Amino acid sequence: MGNPNWRKCLLCGNSKDIIKRIPDNSIDFILTDPPYNIGQHSTGNIPLPGRTPMNNDVAEWDHVNFNPEDWAEEFIRILKPTGNLFIFTSYNQLGRWYNCLDHRFDTSNFMIWHKTNPAPKIFKAGFLNSCEMIFTCWNKKHTWNFISQREMHNFMESPICMRPERLSDPKHPAQKPIKILEKMIQIASNENDIIFDPFMGVGSTGIAAMKLNRKFIGIELDKKYFEASVKRVNEELQRVTNNNNKTNADNVKAGLVCEASTLEQQKCISMEQLNLFSTLPDWAEMLQKESKEVKKEKLHKSQEIKLTKMLKPLLKWPGGKEKELKFIIPESPKFNNYYEPFVGGGSVYTAFDANHFYINDKSEELINLYCYIATKNVDFFGWAGAIDQSWKNMLSFSEREIALKDIYFDFRLDKITDQELLTMLRQHLNGERRQFDECLSIQFVWNRDDFFSLLYTTLRRKLLRMKKIEKERVIMPDEDIMDNIETAYMGTLYTYLRSLYNDKHLYVENSPLHTALFLYLRYNSYSGMFRYNDDGDFNVPYGGISYNHKTLEKVLAYYQSEALCRHFENTTMENLDFEEFFHEHQPQEDDFVFLDPPYDSEFSTYAQNDFTQNDQRRLANYLINECHAKWMMVIKATPFILSLYENHGLNIKTFDKTYQVSFMNRNDKDVKHLIIKNYE
């Protein structure tokens, strides 16, 4: 942006709506403090004998079901490749943030804020709430400003926010001290960087940004907190301006303040109703300029690569290249048509634009999914919706299982024996059969006896294990017990749906249902892995507690989105061996072939199909001796692969990749990868 003509942009409205206007790759540092969802577990203010109850700092928003999954994609979209993401969070949300962000960044970690003056516990019945977690994410080459090793501890101390800094009117229960926010901003950003806080509160992050000569965008829904933040940030900006010998803040065009005074009663304020353009050019337009500069840095200046508006991959897939796009895109040529013989989850296919796409995969199930999406197959979307609704219904049912919790409490206290537990469990489940019939979609032909037998076995094991853990280690909080019971129900449904998927007759007789089950299992299996046993049955277990609240609703909406449908209109899909695919379609000189083949490893199963070293030789022979198009391959570096492509005048580069899961020693955690091209 060169010499920016703005310093702050404060917006009053629903950040979920406003964030959609922020351009891709435009924010340097997201530092925010979203709702913790602690209200549902809180008993409210703490009663004190003969005294006024102690304020437990639980706000209205803590009673709202805040879902990190709803925010992860937008955070990733707007953050620059060099940016950092810091999220204040609580114990009950940490796992959910980790689950939806960890695999999307090179590194995820956490910081601890130790409060040196936490609220006391009068009854001394547990730990003081003296620590608060900050979940952190970044990619390689991120901004990181440390002077010494001593500074690099992921632990910092300060008192909680106290007067005079802490406001009393309005009193914000989660106001953070500016000191710790300054430290984070100083570490994770540079001067004139853009700091973004979509849950601004009373503006503390904005003040810290002003103090350190950063630009700031903050959003706050609550009108009284928004007004307080405007006052505080303007006061700080005035102080900074005066210190810089400016005549007044207005002369430097401080920024936009968008109020909603005429819409106070509305909880959600649309951008059309906010007067964003009264004093300065559109803030989003200014960000767009900076975003374009970032993209130019990622591409060769001589190239005119056509990119989409970064459609998302279609699904999880082993070895997906979404995180590697930052390496792939700058190395890509300009082209007419696009070819990809091992399309997988489609992260590269959806990143580019082309006159026409030719994609292929050896997995028949995957290509069936793509075809059903492209043709808007009614049966497939009907089955997928039915599976998702059954999942939601089961989750809702499990969250109400208070009676089962009470049975377990008696068992934990040895009021009932192991055998009595099993009898009571069986009686309880038999009494709930009608409710289960209402939970599970009527579209399915449920084998109720099989389902109940599986549910009984799963719950029995879960309850026995919980008691064992509690006797050997520590008593679980009530919410953890309910989470475990919930996971037993959801894991049972997953296992039952997995058995339907493994029914070989279903594959032939009802391909849309089988494909819908394939999609569901892709999103709910442990770490997104797909593994088959010797009988050809998929056998990866359920992902666990962090998967309980995952639904297909957004995925199915994306599959039916106009942008994705347009992408498929220009796509030819095949389910062939890669050589057959190339000989069928014959890529030409002005075309581009991207290749992400199965890796050379002991574990080389590719969607139930082996990809051997002989297949690697066939591929290398075609690319080196027959292919007329420009091509790029991304593959794990091994001596065998290097032996195939060295000494042929090819352009070979390396980059580092970190795997989150190393299954069956398939890959080392940190490995070298190759980018191999037949062009400069």
Explain what you see.
This protein has 680 residues and is of the alpha/beta class. The protein folds into 3 domains: 8-42 and 56-119 and 126-293, Rossmann fold (3-Layer(aba) Sandwich), CATH 3.40.50; 325-363 and 560-677, Vaccinia Virus protein VP39 (Rossmann fold); 378-549, no CATH class. Helix content is 38%, strand content 16%. It has 22 helices and 20 strands. The strands form 4 sheets. Strands 8-6-7-5-2-9-10-1-11 form a 9-stranded mixed β-sheet. A 7-stranded mixed β-sheet has the order 14-13-12-15-18-20-19, with helices on both faces. Strands 3-4 form a two-stranded antiparallel sheet. Helix 10 (378-398) runs antiparallel to helix 13 (433-439). The protein is globular. 34% of the residues are buried. Residues 246-254, 259-281, 298-303, 602-607 and 659-669 have low confidence and may be disordered.
Number of domains: 3
CATH level-3 fold name of the largest domain = Rossmann fold
- Structural class assignment: alpha/beta
**Average predicted local confidence, pLDDT:** 82
- Low-confidence segments, given as residue ranges, are 246-254, 259-281, 298-303, 602-607, 659-669
Name given to the CATH homologous superfamily of the largest domain: Vaccinia Virus protein VP39
Sketch the major β-sheet.
9 strands, mixed
Helix segment tally: 22
Distance between the termini: 31 Å
Rg from Cα: 28 Å
Bin the helical content.
Answer: 25-40%
Please list the strands of the largest sheet in the order they lie side by side: 8-6-7-5-2-9-10-1-11
Q: Report the principal-axis shape.
A: globular
